[in-house]
Amino acid sequence: MPDGHSPISQAMVLAAGLGTRLRPITERMPKPLVPVAGRPMIDYVLDLLVEAGVRKAAVNIHHFADQMEAHLARERRLAILLSDERQELLNSGGGLVRGLKLLDCEPTLVMNADLFWVNETATPPALKRLAQGFDPERMDMLLLCVPLDRTTGHNGKKDFSLGSDGQLARFREGLPAPVVYAGAMAVHPRLFSDAPDGPFNLNIYFDRAIASGRLHGILLDADWITVGTPEAIAEAETVLGRKAG
């Protein structure tokens, strides 16, 4: 994996989802603002981005967009640009493409707003390693991945197999090194120059990159937390409590 590439100072945060599995909590607030150990989930995400040196982030909003806008207006550590999807929810791919248009056409960190990690042991931290390792000449996307046994709140699905050369393939039984996509990646916006207008799923580009040998991954060495259901909040708070203790 190449090292020493220029730091990445901008990010796109995917925060517009409906959070249907978190109902009834998300019937009164957007999923990224659901509190975990007294803090909205998205604040943990912003912590990680700030730690990595990100100075500007686009954030897409749809569900309870006014609440998101008010919360993000209080953020002072980095500049927030809102990608407004009030009129139409654009799915993971469409939302990403619209948000990237608010940023510079240069390598960008992309992160989901409803997951984060704690107790990281590797140095430099994962998002900095993503930035350093991303080589747009050889890669379409560099994904942060996590072993299943380091996940909390996950449904058990294995997403990819991580090869010894750093390339990713869709996981199927019999392949080595199964990993879960940790919801963070590095990408160059030019990858989406041919993207369709409107909603589409980002998996289209994952599969295209796999077919051309340009989907790569690195491992997260931390406790990875996703909160998809009300029951998962308590599990997440237990992990965070271990950190605090």
TrEMBL record:
GO molecular function, one term: nucleotidyltransferase activity
Domain Nucleotidyl transferase: 11-119
EC number: 2.7.7.-
UniProtKB keywords: Nucleotidyltransferase, Transferase
Pfam families: NTP_transferase
Protein name per UniProt: MurNAc alpha-1-phosphate uridylyltransferase
Native organism: Gellertiella hungarica
